[in-house]
Write a structure and sequence with these properties.
Elements lengths: L22 H12 L7 E5 L1 H4 L5 H7 L4 E5 L5 H9 L9 H8 L7 E5 L1 H4 L5 H7 L4 E5 L5 H9 L10 E5 L9 H18 L4 E5 L10 H16 L6 E4 L25 H21 L10
Parallel strand pairs: 1-2, 3-4, 3-5, 5-6, 6-7
Helix pairs in contact: 7-11, 8-9, 9-10
C-alpha cells in the first residue's frame, strides 16, 4: 500500500469553488457548527451516496432513532473528505459518557438505567415517558456497548455524585468475542461494582433477549448467559434478576418484526413487553425501601 505522502487519493484538499457560489465550503461550515456538543451515536461521512440518504424515509425510519449525523457532500472525493475531517468536522463531537458524567452531578434519580442500545433506545418510546420518567429515571445507555465499556464508564465518573435507589443493568448482547460464561462474568463484575459504589441501591439485572429471526448460536449463547446469571446473582444479596426472554419466541421458534424490527432491537410493542414486568418490579422494590428513603417519591 502506498504511504499517504505518495498516494494522491490521500492528499487532503478542499473542493475548488469553480462555480463561485461557495456552496461546498458553506456545507462544511454547517457541519462544523452542527457538531458542536453533538452526541451522535452514528456519524455518516462521505459523498452524495451519504448525503442523499437523509432525503428518504429509510433515514427517518432506521437512522434518525440512532441519533445520526449526516456529513455527506455530493461530488466529494477521498481527498475532500479527508480535508473536511482535518478541518473541524470532528471537533466538539462529545461522547455520551462525557454528558453522563455531567448529568449525574447533583442529580437525584430514583432509578438509573445503564447498558447498551437496549437501554438507550427505550427512552425514545412512549413507554419510557409513561412508566419510567415518573420514577425520576436517568438513562445511561450507549448503543454498541459491551460489558467492558459499561464497566469502564462506571469506573470513570458516571457514578460520581449520584445516589439512585435502584440501578437497572442491561448489557451483554454485544460481547461477540466472549463465551457465555465470560459475558455473565462481565455482567456480574458490573453488578459487584454497583453494589460497592452504591451500598444502599438495589441492582436489577435484565436477562439477555433472544436474537435472530430463527434459532441460531447467538440465541443459545444468550440463553446460557441468563442461566449463569440466574445462578450467580443471588450471591450478591442486593441484586435481582428479571428474564422476559421467553415472551419473544413463538411456538415455531421465530421472532417477529412486530417485536424486534431487525430481530435484535425492540419496537414500541417489544419494549412494552419488557417494560410492564420491569415497571411492576421497580415499583415493588421502591415500595420496600424504608419510608425516609422514598419520601422524595411522594
Amino acid at each position: 500500500m502506498s504511504g499517504d505522502g505518495l498516494n494522491p487519493a490521500a492528499a487532503a484538499r478542499p473542493v475548488d469553488d469553480a462555480q463561485g457560489d461557495g456552496r461546498w465550503m458553506s456545507q462544511h461550515t454547517r457541519f462544523v457548527l452542527e457538531c458542536k456538543d453533538a452526541e451522535p451515536d452514528v456519524l455518516f461521512v462521505g459523498d452524495s451516496m451519504i448525503q442523499l440518504m437523509q432525503q428518504y424515509e429509510v433515514w427517518r425510519e432506521l437512522f434518525s432513532p440512532l441519533h445520526a449525523l449526516n456529513f455527506g457532500i455530493g461530488g466529494d472525493t477521498t481527498c475532500n473528505v479527508l480535508w473536511r475531517l482535518q478541518n473541524g468536522e470532528l471537533e466538539n463531537i462529545r461522547p455520551k459518557h462525557t454528558r453522563f458524567v455531567l448529568e449525574c452531578k447533583d442529580a437525584e434519580p430514583d432509578v438509573l438505567f445503564v447498558g447498551d442500545s437496549m437501554i438507550q433506545l427505550m427512552q425514545q418510546y412512549e413507554v419510557w415517558r409513561e412508566l419510567f420518567s415518573p420514577l425520576h429515571a436517568l438513562n445511561f445507555g450507549i448503543g454498541g456497548d459491551t460489558t467492558c465499556n459499561v464497566l469502564w464508564r462506571l469506573q470513570n465518573g458516571e457514578l460520581e455524585n449520584i445516589r439512585p435507589k435502584v440501578v437497572v443493568l442491561w448489557v451483554g448482547t454485544n460481547n461477540y468475542g466472549h463465551t457465555a460464561e465470560q459475558v455473565a462474568g462481565g455482567i456480574l463484575a458490573i453488578a459487584q461494582l454497583l453494589t460497592s459504589r452504591l451500598p444502599k441501591a438495589k441492582i436489577l439485572v435484565l436477562g439477555l433477549l433472544p436474537r435472530g429471526e430463527r434459532p441460531n448460536p447467538l440465541r443459545v449463547k444468550n440463553a446460557a448467559v441468563n442461566g449463569f446469571l440466574r445462578s450467580w446473582l443471588p450471591r450478591l444479596g442486593r441484586a435481582q434478576f428479571l428474564d422476559v426472554s421467553g415472551e419473544f419466541v413463538h411456538s415455531d421458534g421465530t421472532i417477529i418484526p412486530q417485536d424486534m424490527f431487525d430481530f435484535l432491537h425492540l419496537t414500541a410493542t417489544g419494549y412494552r413487553t419488557v417494560a410492564k414486568p420491569l415497571s411492576d418490579l421497580l415499583l415493588q422494590i421502591l415500595e420496600e425501601i424504608p419510608e425516609e428513603r422514598r419520601a422524595s417519591l411522594v
